[in-house]
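>> received
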Amino acid sequence: MSSLPIYLFIFIVFLNRYVFGLYLSIARGKKLDEKILGYEPTITVVVPLFNEGPSIYDTIVSLVHLEYPADKLEIIVVDDCSTDDSYHHACRGMAEFPNVRVLRNPVNMGKRRGINHAVRESRAEIIVSVDSDVIVYPTALRELVARFTTPQVAAVGGRVHVSNPNDNWLSKMQTIKYYFGQEHLKNLERSLDQVMCLSGCLTAYRRHVLMELEPILENRNILGIAIKYGEDRFLTHQIVKHGYKTRMTMDAFCFTKAPTKLKGYFAQQLRWKRSNIVDFMIGVTHAWTLHPLMCLQYLSMLMLLMVYPFIIVNHALEGRFINLVVLHGFVIGLFGAIYYFSPSVRKLPPWLRVHPLSFLPMAILMPVAYLIITPLGLFTLDSSSWETRGHGGTPAPLPAPAPGGHL
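>> returned
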């Protein structure tokens, strides 16, 4: 079986995601991340909580001390019936800080419906979603709201840094993976104001848009089975589908722990793979409403998601699996070099950087993930688990801000 047509297809995907995206980002220049000064809306930071233990208190403390007027900032923690002592630690934060509220869902409803609960309780203009295991950089809120330059901008996401990059080989690999996922893979989407997935780690939304979409968000299901995973991607997609703009800025950032064991890593990848499959399959009917380049990216990524496992199997059956691994190794090595020489990486403090060769394990993990995780995700779409990461513990300390608020 000839692999040439498949490799040509993969090359087109590569061009669209990297080359066209880079060209458009350069062409837009400063307009890629334009902002306004002096905009200071009321903000409610919503933290969905499930089994995070004592670390939720650290998250609350970091949010209370963000650089934003205290009279315009509220923090709402929504506990989704945690089975550990998370609720107790959240209440400790509420007792210490007057602008912190803790809500508890009557039953386990999932992350998205928990956030909806908090949105209904809020009266703020902007809702900022923050994961319960995340530490937000002090200037992040100001950077997020500055990107709401027009009423059509409904959501603005921030960048996620790995807070434990040098724990082991797995966290090092993911540090580079996060870098490419945010600084390169989203160039096309950022250039067209159609970012299709804004992370729940740190994203700001106009509250009235969330209220407008609430009926859709509350009743998400597959064949009548409620879906609790992939809520960030689903929400962003619905915002774009309803004609709003979505943006992402690298100047607002937070820190999250990457899994350091293969079990946790593959559990994370399975969550994300299910989310991708559901989003692509449901969204394919209206992909044509997107910008032509975005439509091409959307449909090609769906095809790649489904076809690549068969490419791997075909190479294995024909005794050419090692050739595929070598090809992956070459591409991964090239990406490692791009990471190493990136000006934005060189500006980071040493503890946030890793050696470029740390990305080489992806040459093995990528085909394994496509071969195993994709089919597994496809056959477990009815999972309704929160699948908490359960990080716990105290996050790594933040570096002192440099002039201008950057790391």
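>> The chain is about 50% helix and 15% strand.
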